[in-house]
Amino acid sequence: MRGTRIILFFAVVTVGVLFITAGSYASEAEILLKILMKKGIVTQAEYDEVMEELKSAHSLESRVQAIENKAGQVSRDHEDFATHVDKHITHAEGPAVIGGINVAAGITIVGQGTSGNDENTPPGDDAVDGNISADIELSGKLGQQGEAFIALETGDGTGLAEEIDAFWGFNADAGPSSTVEITEVWYEHQFSEGLVTLTIGKLDLTNYFDVNEVANDETTQFLADGFVNDVTVEFVDGPALRLTVSPSALIDISVAAQSDGWDDLDEKNFLIAGADIKPKFGELQGNYRLYVWTNGSDHTDVNDATKTGERGTGYGVSADQQIMENLMLFARLGFRDDDLTEYEFDTAWSGGLALMGSAWGRDNDVLGLAYGEAILANHREDALRAAGTTPGNEGHFEVYYSLALNEHVVISPDIQIITNAKGDDNFKTVVAGALRGQFTF
Questions:
Q1: What is the mean pLDDT of the chain?
Q2: Please, what's the b/e burial string for 317-348 (b: 16 or more CB within 10 A of its CB; e: otherwise)?
Q3: Among 15, 227, 255, 379, which residue's beta carbon has the most beta carbons within 10 A?
Q4: pTM across the whole model
């Protein structure tokens, strides 16, 4: 009897291994049990019991595998969407999910006033102006490798643009439109497990080129246009195609083409190529982005006014580096043609820092500080001198404090100082103070 039990034990183990390691061996396992039963070693009841247990074991294995597959997919979906959100609105709790569609929304309100502008000639005016903007973003997965995205935006108020004419700008969030616009709508597909990413539609290429962790978002970081993006790059707005190759976690290589409108898509496009290098020094992350661009729209040669079909070209670098757990530095440097009439300045540089509030017990607060200049092109300097004006490079200083009231509301007092607006050395220094509120849902 003991020998029978031992044989039965090994039979069950053998059949169990066959089921677990390869489901295709199920028929052979059943044949083995039947042979044992025919020889009287296994009874009908024991046969039925063993078969039932093996079926349950196989069913359990299948259920476990299904759960593991589902968990793996949820993890991949989360990682893909987290990457997407980094390029757009940042929400502490993440976007809401409605019917499988991720929904995020934000409202920005800015009040901004000047001091010292009434001393400028022609007579300036100190004023307090405001603006508001709102945006909604929708995104969703299309299969395992695809994602669709749409961004709607509206706003009202031009800010200080009508009070002071400056290269650098005072408020990148302000704009004249009061209608709802589709600012982005695209489809993105990943190939070879993320090695290659293709995006097509209406794109905001500043989400892929000239990106900066410290100075890239006018709703939560610096307000001035020159600290949001490189002001020497002549970006356009329209349909685009972007291709990124990511051979390793250290580098991304991207190229893009964009048309300034939906007509004549094959003519006078904006082209840009760049590399994003992402080294990590211990636990300190760095990002170093290089790019070169060309704009095919019509430009006029400074030395020959009959040449009105010239292309604009330029190149630059945008870098940010974490140097402490709560401190990051940034720098930008951009160059473009100095012999085109439309380009009154041919170089722009900026640098600054972001100090996280964890340094004084406010983990979600940020203190930002930056300075930059727009360097005049030679022909602009000559024109100013000819008009009896002393030229000088436009300088811009900005400091803000981002005070997080909770995960949805951030209030930011902001101070900017501008010198030599439009390259005029006679321009009296102007101070602009602002209060910004950012509300995310």
A1: 84
A2: bbbbbbeeeeebbbbbbbbbbbbbbebbbbbb
A3: 227
A4: 0.76
